[in-house]
Structures are given as structure tokens and as C-alpha cells.
Amino acid sequence: MYSTLKRKTPLRAKAPLRAKKGLNTYKPLRAGASTASKPKKSGEKKQRQAAYKPVYPYASIFTADLKTCYITGSNKDSADIHVHHIFGGANKANSEKYHFLIPLRADWHDMADYGIHFNRELDLKIKRFCQDYWLEHYGTKEEFIVTFSKWW
Ligand SMILES: [Zn+2]
Prior knowledge:
This protein is mainly α. It has helices at 2-6, 33-36, 42-51, 92-97, 106-111, 120-137, 141-148, and strands spanning 81-85, 101-105. It starts with a helix and ends with a helix.
């Protein structure tokens, strides 16, 4: 019993290492494939944004002064203060209708990575503030969802 326990399966020592498949052959990157196929979108986007025509006069639940950045208090250069639609896309007009607009300095809008267009934490904070405002002034959560298609 003892000896059989001790006996080990012999290693397949003499088996030559099987040559594995050849190393992955180097595939050269297709020159310019990723960059050349993408048209520059930034100009396009700016044109689309500029083409949007407000449906309602601008007003904000956050401030009466749409020329002063709500975050920084900056108002030196009015061209540098953007009025952001808190609910964008198809809800831009709804944002105007319910005064869910906020004036932001360009960097806090969409000209830096911490700007509200790229900063999910800030975006949600502002959206949820608007939802709370809706509940206090306009209607129910269900009605908000009917209007804006989503509850944030
Ligand atoms: Zn915006």
C-alpha cells in the first residue's frame, strides 16, 4: 500500500516540448485607419448647437443673472458665459420651458473635462436639483418622467 502511494506517475520527461504555434505575427497598424476614417466632429457639433433656436425666453431657477457663471461667479466676459440646457437633446425646449437653464463659464460648461458636459457627478447634482424643484413647483415624479422621459 505504502509503495503504491509513493509511486508517482512518471513525468513525461522525454517528450520533447511541442513547438507551440508561432508567435503572433506582427500586424502593422493600418496607417491612419483610426484617425483618417473619423471626420472631425467638433465643427459639426458647434454648427448644430448654433443652429438650435430657443423656443422660450431664457430664465433659470438658479439665478436671475444669466450673464454670471453660477459656479465661479465670473461675469467679466459675457461671451465666455454659456447658458447650459440642463436636460439636453430632445429636452432642450423643456429645459427652457421650466427654466432648467444654468449660466456657466465656458470651462465649466464644455471647454474642460470638469465641465458639466463631461462631469457626470456635477451633471447629476444639477439635474437632481431641478427634479426637486419640479416636485416643489410643477408636479409629480410621474409627470416629470412623462415630460422628460427619464428620472435621474
Ligand atoms: Zn450645455
